[in-house]
């Protein structure tokens, strides 16, 4: 009897394995699936050999076509590459969702909160509130540009004092508090001194949250039980240790603003405006304390990480291309002169400087996999059937490094963003570093002027040099975003020519 039962169990197990390894009808092509783990072994092998997740996705796209379907655990992951496929994906409202799962809920108290990684009616309410409030506070207008210019002035003066002393310092880390202040004026209505050690540590914590797990949620999202078996290697332990101080800082800030006697009626920051909404008798149910912390965390993380990484890469490429650096400085000297720093009004008059920033954003591709989407219902894409709840990743790296379009994508050449006469910036439809569609990056109108003003001011006031004889590597640190490998610079005051 036991032998018969064992045979039945074995047969049922084999049948389940065969069923589990089947691909859905008209599912996009991709590597083979194994029971339970799907394409996991193929993906891990490729990542180990190529060292970067976006190169792994790119290799699969070269092998199987512009739309690739894989399975990792029980998740269906659709990688979309190339102009036509990505354009078709962004055009469909069915892909406006965000993935669900343990990792995506972990950062927001086990719920789907915030605006970056959620969807649905509550997301609609919260995104409208965030966009409306930040516009009311001046984002995208001249008043807020003045806030950025003030932070630039403070940072330049700080760098001047350190340059006089002959200090060498990490470039990206030295800008973090100034970049955080740009956002913090909107979120909390206040700024911090650039030497604030706690804020420097918190900014570094933000950076590290982007390099624990990849953009699709990693192994932890597929096999959440691994947090009990191997909490460190699964990413659970490191991520939790990074999130706790960020949660604590944001809760402390919210409580401080709440205790202000004018809090019940003032709307001079996003946090105070949110607290006013919470106090209303007819408030929407999505206005909760946990939502406020998660909303601030979304904005706090995305702004500091992306702006810091782009600027870090920008100065790194200047070290590797001193001829480009000289052209930038020559343009700044001609337009700005020796007596002031660049302002937002100068931006149209500095096309070469703007083109250099765009070329850095293209070649560095700080967010190579974009922000992941979710198919909110079964939908067809370029002849393939995409199942409901599939994770969909627009591989922006495939656009920004497309050899057919850019000709020499591995070459750093700012002129590709300039008109033939070199007097104006040219736009390219394959260049969408902030994504597209309804889920386009919320902080785009903040990041663009901030990156321009910080970069142009430092280029105008300082000569930048390596600390050592060897140029720092152009390689990136992998994760949800790409950031430059830490490097150290020396600055020297420039004489305007």
Whole-angstrom Rg: 24 Å
Helix content: 40-55%
> What is the average per-residue confidence, as pLDDT, rounded to a whole number?
85
Strand content: 5-15%
| Apparent shape | globular
Distance between the termini: 95 Å
From the coordinates shown, what is the CATH architecture of one domain? 2-Layer Sandwich
GO biological process, one term: xenobiotic metabolic process
InterPro entries: Cyt_P450, Cyt_P450_CS, Cyt_P450_E_grp-I, Cyt_P450_sf, Cytochrome_P450_fam2
GO cellular component, one term: cytoplasm
Cofactor: heme
Describe this structure in words.
This protein is an alpha+beta fold and about 500 residues long. It has a domain of about 120 residues: Uridine Diphospho-n-acetylenolpyruvylglucosamine Reductase, domain 2 (2-Layer Sandwich), CATH 3.30.43. The protein is about 50% helix and about 10% strand. The chain has 19 helices and 11 strands. Strands 1-2-7-4 form a 4-stranded mixed β-sheet. A hairpin with a 2-residue loop joins strand 5 and strand 6. Helix 14 runs parallel beside helix 19. The longest helix is centred in the middle third of the chain and has 32 residues. The protein is globular. The mean pLDDT is about 85.
């Amino acid at each position: 009897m036991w032998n018969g039962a064992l045979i039945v169990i074995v047969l049922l197990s084999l049948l389940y394995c065969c069923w589990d390894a089947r691909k859905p009808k008209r599912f996009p092509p991709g590597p083979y699936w194994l029971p339970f783990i799907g394409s996991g072994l193929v993906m891990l092998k490729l990542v180990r050999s190529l060292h970067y997740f976006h190169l792994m996705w790119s290799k699969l796209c070269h092998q199987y076509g512009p739309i690739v379907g894989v399975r990792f655990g029980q998740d269906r992951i659709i990688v979309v590459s190339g102009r036509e496929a990505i354009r078709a994906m962004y055009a469909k409202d069915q892909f406006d969702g965000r993935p669900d799962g343990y990792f995506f809920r972990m950062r927001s108290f086990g719920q789907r909160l915030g605006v970056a990684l959620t969807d649905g009616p509550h997301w609609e309410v919260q995104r409208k509130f965030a966009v409306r409030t930040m516009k009311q506070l001046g984002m995208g207008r001249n008043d807020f540009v003045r806030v950025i210019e003030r932070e630039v002035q403070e940072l330049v003066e700080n760098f001047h004092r350190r340059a006089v002393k002959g200090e060498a310092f990490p470039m990206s880390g030295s800008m973090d508090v100034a970049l955080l202040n740009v956002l913090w004026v909107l979120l909390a209505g206040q700024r911090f001194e650039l030497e604030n050690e706690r804020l420097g540590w918190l900014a570094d914590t933000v950076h590290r949250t982007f390099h624990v797990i990849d953009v699709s949620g990693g192994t932890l999202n597929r096999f959440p039980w691994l947090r009990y078996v191997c909490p460190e290697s699964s990413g659970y332990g490191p991520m939790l240790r990074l999130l706790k101080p960020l949660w604590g800082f944001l809760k402390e800030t919210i409580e401080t603003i709440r205790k202000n006697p004018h809090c019940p009626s003032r709307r001079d920051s996003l946090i105070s405006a949110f607290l006013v909404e919470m106090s209303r008798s007819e408030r929407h149910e999505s206005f909760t304390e946990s939502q406020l912390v998660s909303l601030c965390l979304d904005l706090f993380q995305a702004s500091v990480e992306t702006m810091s990484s782009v600027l870090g890469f920008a100065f790194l490429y200047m070290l590797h291309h001193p001829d480009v650096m000289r052209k930038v400085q020559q343009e700044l000297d001609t337009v700005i002169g020796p007596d002031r720093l660049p302002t937002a009004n100068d931006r149209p008059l500095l096309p070469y400087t703007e083109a250099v920033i765009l070329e850095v954003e293209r070649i560095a591709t700080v967010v190579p996999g974009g922000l992941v989407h979710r198919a909110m219902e079964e939908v067809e894409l370029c002849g393939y059937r995409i199942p409901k709840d599939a994770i969909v990743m627009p591989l922006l790296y495939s656009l920004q490094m497309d050899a057919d379009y850019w000709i020499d994508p591995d070459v750093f050449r700012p002129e590709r963003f300039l008109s033939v006469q070199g007097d104006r910036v040219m736009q390219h439809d394959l260049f969408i570093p902030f994504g597209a569609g309804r889920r386009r990056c919320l902080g785009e109108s903040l990041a663009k002027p901030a990156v321009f003003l910080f970069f142009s001011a430092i280029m105008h006031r300082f000569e930048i040099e390596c600390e050592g004889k060897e140029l720092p590597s152009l390689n990136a640190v992998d994760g949800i975003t790409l950031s430059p490998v830490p490097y150290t610079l020396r600055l020297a005051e420039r004489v305007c020519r």
